[in-house]
Hints:
Layout: E1 5-8, H1 14-19, E2 29-32, H2 42-54, E3 57-60, H3 74-86, E4 92-95, E5 98-100, E6 104-109, H4 115-132, E7 137-139, H5 153-164, E8 167-171, H6 172-182, H7 186-192, E9 198-204, E10 207-208, E11 214-215, H8 224-237, E12 242-245, H9 253-271
Parallel strand pairs: 1-2, 1-12, 2-3, 3-4, 4-7, 7-8, 8-9, 9-12
Antiparallel strand pairs: 5-6, 10-11
Helix pairs in contact: 4-5, 5-7, 7-8, 8-9
Amino acid sequence: MTVAAGLGLRRALLDPLxxxxxxxxxxxxLEAAPENWMEVGGALGRRFRxxxxxxxxxxxxxxxxxxxxxxxxxxxxxRLRGFLDAHDIxxxxxxxxxxxxxxxxxxxxxxxxxxxAVEHLAGRVAIVQDVLERTIALENIxxxxxxxxxxxxxxxxxxxxxxxxxxxxxxxxxxYVNAMNHGEDASALIDSLPLGRVRGLHxxxxxxxxxxxxxxxxxxxxxxxxxxxxxxxxxxxxVLPTVLERDFNLPPWPQLLAELQTLRAHQARAMNEPMHV
Length: 277
């Protein structure tokens, strides 16, 4: 089992990452959105190449639209495979959502939890995995409305993993946000997921609105209940590679490293606890 604490790569972090001292807690790996880097050349492209030579990379996409109605863009998928191969990235994931139809919608939109949606996803995942020559992972998303469907979120996630024969990136903050917003049991969802198919974990902060609605922003520090849910996930799956996500409202680099060190402390503590299967 690889114990690793990573950061999501953002352009604002290029300088700190290039200068980071491993002895002071630099991340073990970086997670990059291919859409932000695969067509980039010049000085910025060289800086990305330098980071890819220093840090192990994982790719976490934004635009696959695996659940969307429009046909998959095979040319884009081939270019994506070229990017992954060029940077020696074996691990590719995207979101269990849709974000495009005739054009890009720039939002990760929820799918109905139905058997029909599971079958739709299974066929599209097979195409993606064939083109990329990789087993992909899909991430559970935060959703602020539940579409009509005969399955619960837990049943839907399990059905997609089994029918599509893909893995899951478990976003612990999204589990928490959905549970709080929809009156569900976050721990029970985690306990329902199959061992061996959760590839990695995400942890992030969110915003609490005045009306009690929680919004997944990746712009705040991780709160105590989400850390506790991460501990629960480690007890269930073991200490998997975990990404600390921060998309905006970035704190000073030492403060971000301190939060990464908090993540490492949770991992270290979980390593000494028995798994709960």
